[in-house]
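Inputs:
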Amino acid sequence: MTKVKALVISGNGTNCERETAFACTQAGADVVDIVPIWDLMAGQVRMSDFNLLCLPGGFLDGDDLGAARAGANRYRHTKIAGSNQRLGQDLQSFVADGKLVIGICNGFQLMVKLGLLPRLDDSDRQSVTLTFNDSGRFENRWVELLCDPESPCVFTRGIERLPVPVRHGEGKLVGQSEVLTQLDSQHLIPVRYADAQSGQATMDYPANPNGSKGGAAGICDPTGRLFGLMPHPECYLHRTHHPRWTRMPELPAEGLGLRIFRNAVEFLQAGN
Amino acid sequence: MAHRIEVGLVDWVRDAPGEKIRHQIESELGIDTTGVRVIEVYTIEAELSSDELAVVAGSPLCDPVIQAATVDAPFAGDFDWAVEVGFRPGVTDNVGRTAAEAIALALDRPPADRMAVFTSRQVRIRGELSRAVIERIAGELLANDLIQRSEILSAAEFQAAGGFATELAQVSGSGRPAAKNISLAGDDEFLMRLSREKTLVLSLNEMHAIRDYYQREDVIAARARESLGPEPTDVELEALAQTWSEHCKHKIFSALIHYREGDGEAETVDSLFDTYIRGATAQVRKDKGKDDLCLSVFTDNAGVIRFNQDWSLVFKVETHNSPSALDPYGGALTGIVGVNRDPFGTGMGARLIFNTDVFCFASPFHKGEVPKGLLHPRRVLEGVRLGVEHGGNKSGIPTVNGSVLFDERYLGKPLVYCGTGGLMPAQLAGKPSHEKESLPGDRIIMVGGRIGKDGIHGATFSSEELHEGSPATAVQIGDPITQKRMTDFLLQARDLGLYRGITDNGAGGLSSSVGEMAEGPGGCELDLTKAPLKYQGLAPWEILLSEAQERMTLAVAPEQLDAFMALADRTQVEATDLGQFTDSGLFKISDQGRCVALLHMDFFHDGVPRMELEAQWTPPPVEGREPSAPADHGALLKTMLGRLNICSKEYWVRQYDHEVQAGTVIKPLTGAHDDGPSDAAVFRPLLDSMEAVVVSHGICPRYSDLDAGAMAAAAVDEAVRNAVAVGADPDRMAGLDNFCWCDPVQSEKNPEGQYKLAQLVRANRGLYETCVAYGVPCISGKDSMKNDAVIDGLRISIPPTMLYSLVGMLDDAGQAVSMDAKNAGDRVYVLGTTRCEMGASEYYLQVGAENGQVPHVRCEQNLALYRALHQAIWSGCVASCHDLSDGGLGIALAETAFAGDLGMDIDLARVPREDVTRDDYLLYAESQGRFVVTVPEAKSEKFEALLSACAAAQVGLVTDRPSFEIKGLDGKTLLSESLTDLKQAWQRPLDL
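Outputs:
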């Protein structure tokens, strides 16, 4: 079985690295390291030693120039000490090697702004963006996700519905309509905000907390190996995370969010 | 030269920030516009080629998918008016700092080669509006004149001028002004003028003590050795004023007080703090014996208790009232990131795990005049809300608990309480982590942000009332990201054992942090020459006292200095060696090669003369006009649910991240639709353990109008009760007191000082009695004593307010209980006795009744009930539990029902009560020590057995009908309301 080595990059305003790493551990990863970005910049730790990269939630550089914009700028331009590589190039090599990347919330915003998602061609050009919620507000609330069974996304395999919290102010997916149409037709929108009753994707606030078209909550690349989403699956690892657990004695001990990470681990273990 | 880059959204993209401003203009100012768009402006002071400018205007500042940028030309667009708002020179510009860093990276320039970037925001408004209206929008909504400048251009003016001019918000200061000597030779009037003019806020006694110190022979001799004359330097005087300020020395809490009730004998209180606060904790610890949780109390920046064998819990709550009155956003932001540094600077430093916030405002719908120099409460509310949102969310600390209270008297000063909990390993390298030290020879290292004029005189300014001349520099703006980088670095340094002691730079800046750390070794030598500055032109005393944020001071052993500095360098955190700790007995500061301050440590810390004060208590009458019986109980319940102090605070809760760190088990909002009001938070700080911390608070300022002693007792009871309601063990709790008072020192300006001081004495007694009876130690606390505004000779004093914040333990988070009704058929119980305690109740305020009996806390009965209820919760009998507080039983029942989306049938005749004969009193009395509990039929026998010794009775049933029905004492239907109507009445008022 292939060993699963998970890298969770922290620093400059990330704040979900601990629970994200814990999710990887619970999912059965063999190695899980939280690595401050400065250790990567110093060349002390190399991304190439890992096969699962998690970009956790937070506020890179305070999202001061727009969500993860300064963060993406850092990856693109920072040289790794003692080499000619830039951090972003290391990331591109990681992706080119067919390894798995998940970006959650701010990590998703980072992937989009680095051009890692949806990556419809092989360039690192940014083709969609995540911007201010229609409400103009940061909001913390639980939403229901509907998963697309036909999506190539590795992380959402076998999951139909997923309750998870959102905690963001800039989660609305925006892009030129051709790009969005392509995402739709290629099943690159593996998770959509859904109405909890009907289970259908929705544009209605607050079930859709940000106004994303078609209820898009996350997107993947055509290989399904790169995945980003606004909601926080690493915040539903245990039944007591669920907002209504005191009303639902039937809720299993393990939270559904863990399946996202388990899918990644099992995929890598199988030698993919 | 300076360049201006304007970034805006392309036309097809919805401008959500613009729409939000448009909504605010409409809802807050009542002005209709036809559209608002926002342009972000970056003004860059650097030599940049046109190629470089193209790079800068590209990816670092502009989103290529939805934005476009212009360089040195205005962004195109159609509008009638444009308002540009930028910071005044010297005000912290976080976005500017991030932009400067991003630009340097994008241009491959070294990070040290920082360029200056200033941000401003252009708001473009469409609509047929006059200049006067636009000026109002700018002045009352878009810009705070104290920290920002704004400029207005009509479309025609904009066209003619080619947009706004390029302006740099640069501080023009240069060089380093020298330290000055200040003569104290003069009469008392001269001394007091000096104190006032320099915002020293020192009393005549204190000025005399300082004058006398400089006449001591040993002082003159010691100073002569450092070539200092007999007169104090401005550095010394400012450092003394700061250290001796009410804010830092708590002179009122340490004073000798003569307290008199009516015409009775005077009783002497020898320090409120020692007698009642430290005294309560000492008594509780003694009573608890081996079950004592306390590890470090009152000695450090925060209190520390045992969480379990391996981990210690750290907790602190602070206030940031005066700055929030002047600049609500910056004040509150600084409040939250500031209190973060308290647990972080306690012992060897704790990882921060939760925040709590309690705000007190005047009504946001205030219609009357707002005195000059104060801001409209709506604006204060929104600024404070946003400041705490940014401070908490960006720091990755969940806001798990809080309150928002309203009273017209908070117009004079809003109260902004911010609290933070932390967790640290019980031991680090074999030593208890709640202890720290600094030894002679250790280096004094300052870490984090740079020093500017921010927050100068913060400590002294918050020790006096707000007035028209309150200094603008007292305002700081926090920077959560600089702080996050610093805390990430320091936690790593802590675990590597790279430092010996740590404390934060808050009020009083370096003077205070270094001064405190120097107490252990017995002296310090600090060289201001090395201090990293934001800009030139700061005098030595300003460097020493600056309250620029995001800074910690550390004691680093010389042998670890290199490793510490190397790690700082790698993590891009600025760390500076400013000198060393000594055992000389002297606080010695030098600058540019000469000594600028030399103070004996004992005088510096203990030389402040003690205050002696008079307190006079006159109890208010109990008899007063009672209300007539309500005509329509259904309408009354809806009115009560909509009162500002009772209605839903979802507007706040949703905008605060309360789940980051994946530990929040009982969230602030709960129930069938995630919108019922939780009593307390339950938080699992360790991802792999079910052990939980319970976080709650109590605050009852209304009761101060009748008896501040009852107010304080009720606050403690409410905090304990809230925690018990979610499952906390009543025998394992610890608390924190935060007193916010109006000036209790009698003077010509403050004729009611003696009464206010008597209120303070009574509050302390109430606190002491309740804490000791419940066995809840106070582990830390803070007081803020000058919450008054004097504007145009008119004094507005806040109601005396004590917040009691509490942490409790719950061994298994899976046993926690939420407040929402769970299943139809469950029995509804009321626990605790309802009495005719209507005084200062929400109901009396609603109907305009006067006086009455203030609620009293019966500690012994309550504690027996809390223990029994805890047993019942622990044995799984309880489906829901909700505390009765503001608005009493009627409110708690309705909330329980609509949070669970289930109906209720209630019979008031069955409610445990004493001497209550009116339905309205039974529904809205605010007697303490009560709960509404729902219990499944099958568990009711066991539940009743466990509660058999307490006042408890079944009062009805949970139903599956969408209605809420109550029978009155006469057995007839009192009200029958739909759940939806009740919930709407509760949700609407503050859905801003």
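Remarks. The first strand of chain B starts at residue 2 and ends at 9. Chain B has a mean pLDDT of 94.
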